[in-house]
Amino acid sequence: MTRAGMVWAAVATALVLMVLLIVFILQNQDYVQVRFFGLEGAVSLGVALFIAAVGGGVLVALAGAARIIQLRAAAHRRRVLTERSG
Predict the structure, then answer these.
(1) Which tens digits make up the pLDDT trace of 19-60?
(2) Which pick of 51, 70, 81, 86 has the fewest CB atoms within 10 Å?
(3) Is the torsion defined by CA of 60, 65, 68, 73 positive or negative?
(4) In whole angstroms, what is the distance from residue 62 CA to residue 67 CA?
């Protein structure tokens, strides 16, 4: 598969996921009471779940980024030690 084909497939997949997300939010319009660290308000259930999912994704991305930085630092230290001893 060419790069253009892979990009097209990724864009098509993203569009399908966006449509499914919009349908999910539109089908879950009931308002729910939300409380968080003293803040309180009413928001639609679909939007509340979407915000929770995005928040979870951000936490996973931060943990992954921290691990990548840790692994790169360890690889750099190994490379420096190898260059000094070699």
Answers:
(1) 999 999 999 999 999 998 999 999 999 999 998 999 999 999
(2) 86
(3) negative
(4) 9
Alpha-carbon distance 59 to 55, whole Å?
6
Domain assignments of the chain as residue spans, ordered by start:
3-85
**Quick one: 56 exposed, middle or buried, by C-beta within 10 A (0-12, 13-18, 19+)?**
exposed
Classify residue 73 as exposed, middle or buried by CB count within 10 Å of its CB (0-12, 13-18, 19+): exposed
DSSP secondary structure code for residue 3 in this structure: H
Q: What tokens were used for 1?
A: 């598969």
pTM above 0.70, yes or no: no
